[in-house]
Design brief:
mainly alpha
Length: 86
Protein backbone atom coordinates (compact mmCIF):
# COMPACT_ATOMS: atom_id res chain seq x y z
CA UNK A 1 0.00 0.00 0.00
CA UNK A 2 1.33 3.41 -0.99
CA UNK A 3 1.55 5.99 1.77
CA UNK A 4 0.69 9.64 1.29
CA UNK A 5 1.94 12.63 3.25
CA UNK A 6 -1.55 13.11 4.69
CA UNK A 7 -3.29 9.80 5.49
CA UNK A 8 -6.64 11.57 5.93
CA UNK A 9 -6.46 13.12 2.46
CA UNK A 10 -5.83 10.25 0.06
CA UNK A 11 -6.42 10.25 -3.70
CA UNK A 12 -10.00 10.38 -4.97
CA UNK A 13 -11.59 7.09 -5.89
CA UNK A 14 -13.88 6.50 -8.89
CA UNK A 15 -16.90 6.56 -6.58
CA UNK A 16 -15.72 9.88 -5.10
CA UNK A 17 -15.50 11.38 -8.57
CA UNK A 18 -18.99 10.13 -9.50
CA UNK A 19 -20.48 11.82 -6.42
CA UNK A 20 -18.80 15.15 -7.17
CA UNK A 21 -20.60 17.53 -9.48
CA UNK A 22 -18.77 19.99 -11.65
CA UNK A 23 -20.12 23.53 -11.57
CA UNK A 24 -21.35 24.41 -15.06
CA UNK A 25 -19.40 27.17 -16.86
CA UNK A 26 -22.55 29.24 -17.47
CA UNK A 27 -23.21 29.44 -13.73
CA UNK A 28 -19.62 30.46 -12.99
CA UNK A 29 -19.76 33.22 -15.61
CA UNK A 30 -23.15 34.46 -14.43
CA UNK A 31 -22.04 34.57 -10.81
CA UNK A 32 -18.80 36.37 -11.72
CA UNK A 33 -20.92 39.03 -13.44
CA UNK A 34 -23.17 39.20 -10.35
CA UNK A 35 -26.33 38.66 -12.39
CA UNK A 36 -29.44 36.66 -11.57
CA UNK A 37 -30.46 33.93 -13.99
CA UNK A 38 -33.18 36.21 -15.33
CA UNK A 39 -30.80 39.15 -15.81
CA UNK A 40 -28.12 37.02 -17.49
CA UNK A 41 -30.64 35.33 -19.81
CA UNK A 42 -32.21 38.65 -20.83
CA UNK A 43 -28.90 40.50 -21.26
CA UNK A 44 -27.33 37.82 -23.44
CA UNK A 45 -30.52 36.66 -25.18
CA UNK A 46 -30.43 33.11 -23.86
CA UNK A 47 -33.67 31.33 -23.05
CA UNK A 48 -34.14 31.19 -19.28
CA UNK A 49 -35.11 27.52 -19.55
CA UNK A 50 -31.95 26.73 -21.50
CA UNK A 51 -29.79 28.59 -18.98
CA UNK A 52 -31.41 26.73 -16.09
CA UNK A 53 -30.88 23.41 -17.86
CA UNK A 54 -27.19 24.22 -18.33
CA UNK A 55 -26.78 25.34 -14.73
CA UNK A 56 -28.57 22.32 -13.29
CA UNK A 57 -26.64 19.84 -15.47
CA UNK A 58 -29.78 18.72 -17.30
CA UNK A 59 -28.11 19.57 -20.61
CA UNK A 60 -24.82 20.98 -21.85
CA UNK A 61 -24.27 23.87 -24.24
CA UNK A 62 -23.42 22.80 -27.79
CA UNK A 63 -20.14 23.97 -29.36
CA UNK A 64 -21.61 27.25 -30.61
CA UNK A 65 -23.10 28.04 -27.19
CA UNK A 66 -19.80 27.13 -25.51
CA UNK A 67 -18.03 29.60 -27.80
CA UNK A 68 -20.66 32.26 -27.02
CA UNK A 69 -20.20 31.72 -23.28
CA UNK A 70 -16.45 32.06 -23.72
CA UNK A 71 -16.92 35.41 -25.50
CA UNK A 72 -19.29 36.58 -22.75
CA UNK A 73 -16.70 35.59 -20.11
CA UNK A 74 -13.93 37.53 -21.87
CA UNK A 75 -15.88 40.57 -23.10
CA UNK A 76 -19.23 40.81 -21.28
CA UNK A 77 -19.76 44.53 -21.95
CA UNK A 78 -18.87 44.26 -25.63
CA UNK A 79 -21.42 41.46 -26.07
CA UNK A 80 -24.06 43.41 -24.13
CA UNK A 81 -23.48 46.51 -26.27
CA UNK A 82 -23.49 44.55 -29.52
CA UNK A 83 -26.80 42.89 -28.66
CA UNK A 84 -28.32 46.15 -27.46
CA UNK A 85 -27.47 47.85 -30.77
CA UNK A 86 -29.79 45.50 -32.70
Amino acid sequence: MKRTADPDNGPLTDSDLKRMKRTPRAKIIRRALKLSQEEFAARYQISIGTLRDWEQNRSEPDKAAQAYLKVIACEPEMVRKALKAN
